[in-house]
Predict the 3D structure of the following.
Amino acid sequence: MSEQDVWVAGLNHGAHDSSAALLRNGQLVAVVEQERFSRRKRAMDQPPVEALEWCLNHAGITLSDLSAIGLGSDHDVLAQWLGLTPEERRTELDLDNPERLFPKSVFGASELPPVVPVRHHLAHAASAYWASGYEESAVLVIDNRGEDESTTLAYATPDGIETLESYPIEHSLGLFYRIATQYVGLYTKDGNAGKLMGLASYGKPLYEVGLSHTPDGPRWKGVPSATTTGRALPPERTRQLLAFLEEQAFPYTVGLKDDIFSYIDFAASVQTALEDTILGLLRDLKERTGSANLCLAGGVALNCTANGRIAKEALFDNVYIQPMAHDAGCALGAAYEATREVAPQSFRPDVMDHALWGPEYGDDEILAALDSRGLRGERLTPDELVSQVASVIAQGGIVAWHQGRAEAGPRALGGRSLLGDPRHRSTLVRLNTIKKREMWRPLAPSVLADSYEKYFDGTPNPFMIMAAEVRPEVRSLIPAVVHVDGSARPQAVTREANPRYAALLEAFARESGIPILVNTSFNTAGMPLVNRPEESVDTFLDTDIDVLAIGSFLVRRPQ
């Protein structure tokens, strides 16, 4: 560690998706979500203590080595919007309490470095722009809400990120989509917006669902105006929109999840309205900035279907979305902005072109996890491992793949993945059964980047975050990854970003002629992605997975 190094951490410290990131001289060293350690999906109501502890341990530093800690929202501003008294701020909104975030039992009694609150939408915007490598860029942030806004248009240059326009929570796109998910009966505390997106492909946009773009920004047209503010606003808007939707859209009933396919046309209507509204905002943004580049952030930026349409409409030449576009990514954005504040001369961010920034475990730790569970694995060279895994998959097997550093973000990207053969639709059935997922939900492909255009019509993306059309002439070759509307959300894999995973794709191509694998997250319903070897081994034993490839070991199911 150089004496001149400037270390800065960032935290998303809200009520969900807590996370930690660590930068050295503005360059990403580590980022991880708290859920991967606590094993509570989305780390609801949990501070990112273990996430921060891991980041510091990974770098071999302590809290006292940090020049600053950025927080991914400003809770003083949030308290004002909520209408809290100072006492209520202290007792009801204590998520930024240092004793909660930096307990002495974990980090010792050393003096804290400066703690820098960063506005939530600025943290989102920073997480995308500073990681994009663009010299300048238009930026659109869309989520449920920040402190007091829900949509932000901005323009970013090396001098910083300038807010051009922001729109209030009353007409939030993220809140709208969440309530629509509730109307269908899919909403849980885990969110499940992705399920609504998947359901939409089965239907047609037949209904007026209230969301549109206007000269004044996004509006819930036809829905009564809000009569409350602050903490009473989201519950009121939920009641208002649900009542409106019951009048507008079949089956005219909230939450019949046992009759989920009665909502397919409603879901399609919501998805189309969301996309049209986003495109309206992007036209405004293009007119105001003239930029050829676009950065997207916020929870709505995880909507692959919308992102695919944005790329297809080609309002911007280049589109960048980092893999933690949801609130977990605010840790990264807060770290960027805090570095710029305390040490601008040391701020040298680089491009985030892969997501493998989480924990890695050595073969000794893996062997201990296997031994403690009475399992034996065959120790192989890297070439032997990928060859045997490719053979298992080509013969119809399902492989759990735990290799190298873990992914940042909600999608498996070749670090903690469940893999299968895309040539057989039965692979989707098996994987959805193993994961206890609804059978109508699609699975995504990983494809070697240099083969992308042969199979997909769209924009290659390394983060599985942008939908594309599967070319009609190849759909019958890879039916397990083709959704009902002919789409997929492919991950383009390069040898530079993930050499071992790329080698597996190459090995499978030699076995099958297809440089594609079905890739879904290594977890089961309601659980975060696996992280430690113990979790990978336990999930392997508790499910019908055929083979576990973990580190140097290939573990076959005990007879």
Remarks:
- The radius of gyration is 23 Å.
- The mean pLDDT is 97.
- The CA atoms of residues 121 and 146 lie 6 Å apart.
- The first helix runs from residue 35 to 38.
